[in-house]
Amino acid sequence: MTQNITFFLAAFLLSLPFWLGFNVSSETLSEAFFWKEMTESPELLQAQVIRQKLEEQVLRERPILKQNVLSPEIQAQSALSIFIRKDGGTKILFEQGGSRRLPIASITKLMTAQVVAKHYDPATRITISRSAVLEEQDAGYLRIGDVFSVQDLLYPLLMESSNDAAAAFAEMMGKEAFVDLMNLESGELGLKDTHFVNPSLLRFAFG
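^ thats the sequence. predicted structure below, dont judge the formating
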């Protein structure tokens, strides 16, 4: 029995270098054949390089999810965090009160500008009225009787958040008609929980 074990161990030790050498040789041969195929087929080599670059890019851009991290305590009534990929795809990372209706203040003027850009001729001249100047706040410093082109009046509207400019735009077709277009535009954009009551949203109400 002891002799058999001794013989087995001796045979194993003697054959070990052979098997190690065989495995190393197999890996070396496989790698050699792989690179030979790559060099003889430029298309395969290019595809391999592109694949490696894509894998590296994915690793760099993939958001890292940390374990055992508590959800953030957000004091705001609503909050939203979105990851936007280069291809335009999105993924919501965090959401709180996302469907709750809240006043958006001067962000309203983005829709005002959208309606203006869609329905007004940029070269049309607008005279600033007394009622427009009497709007709350004086951003843009517009004066009664000032004359602007539609294009030029967009600057104080968007750059300075001018309520006077918003009112002047709405007066061109009538406030109610203008606000109707704002709500129509929001519907076309899929903003189903958005409702406008005036072009600047200084005063708001929810039904």
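Residues 18-25 have pLDDT under 50 and may be disordered.
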